[in-house]
Write a structure and sequence with these properties.
This protein is an alpha/beta fold. It is built from ten helices and 15 strands. Keywords: Calcium, Hydrolase, Metal-binding.
Length: 452
Amino acid sequence: MGRRELITRTSAAAVSGAAVLGAAEGTRAAAADRRGASGGRPRSRPNILLIYTDDLGYGDFSCYGSTGIRTPRIDRLAREGVRFTDAYAGAVVCTPSRAALLTGRVGPRAGLPRVLFPEDENGLSDDERIIPEYLKSAGYATTCIGKWHLGAKPEHNPTRHGFDHFFGALYSNDMTPFELWRDEEVVESVVDQSTLTRRYTEEAVAAMDRSGDQPFFIYVAESMPHIPLHVEPRFEGASDAGLYGDVIQSLDHYVGVLLDALRERGLEEDTLVILTSDNGPWFEGSSGGLRGRKIYTYEGGLRVPCIARWPGVTPAGKVSELPVSVLDLLPTFCAYAGITPDPGVTLDGCDIRSVLEGADTAEHTPIYYFDDLGRTLDAVRDGRWKLHVRRHIENPDDPDRDQRELPELYDLERDPTESYNVSESHPAVVRRLRRLIEEFESDVKAELAKAG
């Protein structure tokens, strides 16, 4: 029996104006009931709104240093919650990063080490137990909106893996055929991609309204700013950073719509909102001065913006420099929901409730950086130190040329741009981190071999 067996089309709501306000009136009473006797304090089992952007750069929000792109709603979210300076995606490319997010396991361990394409037969295994499956067992209503990218066959559909509802695309917006699905049916084969961010937002608002008196988990996986870039005409020319900047400002606007919808429905105090990205920027976008971009295991490929807000729980205006990872979300969400992850499953993340709630110190497992195909474990961060033992191969005809000057050791507290290799000055640190890489790589390979 697979682990999934152990787990026990509505119209999109309008996102502004009278329709939203009317829907809000209809749900305030339910929100009050959910708060119950707490006297207005946040409930123990929060709603969870997880917004996951695609190929967003570390420096693309103004609260992360952008000057050509204005993101006032996201900046406000940061002022009202915790903004992380050292948050990490689960991989340097789409599929393994999404697998890491939802399974709490690195992509290779979860059987999804590389980007999937429409013709691929493989996808998310029934043996993997993901966030919505756990949360459903705790009574949550679960909705997946936007980019899935964990397999395109019927058995990989989000509704087969714990989501009550799905609206979105099965893979990236540069792959064909690019279609929109509702649950397990194609509902649109010719897609105006400029409307995606708005429509995903409408679907998320509808999911809030649909949840009734259940807590909800709404996963909004944006298609933007992955190329090809598209934006509604109202946002064209809005930024000082070209079409890419316009796309980010559109995202900012619709994040604001979601936050307004929570407040208007009396759900703001009961909802944990997390905003982050699947990896670093690709052709455009700012790495915020970090070395590397998507595909590379330097910080610009894996370090991402991350903001968390739960009024009354996350301290307003906190800037945390503690390392966190999307791998931490599954154990953390389970802890807030009052459930325990399957003890027979190896998780690669930590419960970070104390960090979300303002801790200044916390232990964290090492951050591991696999290459873009999931073949090799190329780097590790443990505390302030990061060691590279392999590097992305630019020229397959001369692979050794790309591996010169290794290993590289960087003190990320003093040198976050990874500019100065200090491996010769700290040989003991190099040996310790190299052992971490070897042991973790062996552990993943052993689990895969055992699974057959």
